[in-house]
Structures are given as structure tokens and as C-alpha cells.
Amino acid sequence: GSNVLRMSSGVQIKTKSSAQKSKTCSPESQPKPSAKLNPKTIDPFRAYSQPSSTFAATYARGGIPCRLVHGSVKHKLQWECPPETVPFDPLLLTLAEGLRETKHPYTFVSKEGFKQLLLVEGAAEKVIPLLPRLVPVLKAALAHADDEVFGRGLDALVQLSAVVGPSLNDHLKLLLTNLLKRLMDKKYREEVTVALQKLEHCGGRVS
């Protein structure tokens, strides 16, 4: 009898409610919970989103050592190991890539992860050698058509500037065209102006 049951539960996976039931009733025929929660296996648009972005693929493989924890009021990030022990290369670059994501939970994990990595002690000396690779990734977020992606890129840039100070100056000219373009858009004028003031404050003169 149990074989028949198991097969039927496999068929029922197509319908939502019975899928939930069958998942809880016959754990032995189901994938491990980690696989079940893996964003790749539950993405209904998987066929359309190939090739998957670097960030989504790394997240699916478990290569991002932090997860989103749903809170009743606000979400938070939980690290599998203390962020100060994590190698900035490649994680900070991967999180910066993730700023261009538009799907949950990638959007939250990349934004919050990037911010928290920059807060660890000694972040500056870990980040400065990565700037030549990090700035083009942030530029791609700032050049993105999606307003939220641009906003995340802008926040990340300001956070980065606060950490590395004048070291960012040589790289800023790469980004200024994208910032000035949004400065023309009144929806963003204030936000970009504030960001430019902060960049100038942290790095000295922005010519």
C-alpha cells in the first residue's frame, strides 16, 4: 500500500493543497528540507530566468553565508558564521552583484549583507584592494533601469564611501555619469544630491 501512496503523492505535487499535505505526511519520499527551501527548486519561472544570475546561482548553492529570517515586524539577516570571518573576496563582490536582483529574498539578502559586511572591524583594508572590481559592479546597479536597483546601488555606494574614504575618489569618475543622469530626474534629484554630498564629505573633493 505505501508504494501506491507514495506515487500518488508524487502526482499530487501539482496541486497546491495536497502538495503541502504530502510534503508533511511522507518526508522520506521528499527531498531534504534544504533542497525544498532552495530558491531554485521553488522558482516557477525557472525556465524563463536561465541563465540564472551569478548571485541567484550562488545563493541556491548555499554560497552566501547568510539567510533572510522573517520577523513579524521586520526581516533580519542571519549569518552562518561571524561576518568578520568571511572572505570579502568573493563575497562582497557577489553581494554587490546581488544588488541588481529584483526578486525576493535576493534583494534583501544582497542589500543587507553588503551593508553588514562593510560594518565589520577592519573592513577598509579588506575592501580597498577590491575597489577596481567592485566599482564596475556598483556602476551596473546605478545604470539599471529599475528604480529600486538604482536606489540599492546608491545606498551601497554611500556606505562604501564611508568605509574607504578618499580611496574611492579615483573610481568615482566611472560612476558620476550614472549619478548625474538621475540627478536630471526630479524623482531622484534630492536623493542623488544627498549622496553626492556624502561622497564629497567622505572622500574630499568630487570634481
Automatic annotation (TrEMBL):
Region (Disordered), start-end ranges: 1-42
Gene3D superfamilies for this protein: Leucine-rich Repeat Variant
One Pfam match: ParcG
Ranges of Polar residues composition bias in the record: 1-32
Protein name as it appears in the record: PACRL protein
Upper classification of the organism: Eukaryota, Metazoa, Chordata, Craniata, Vertebrata
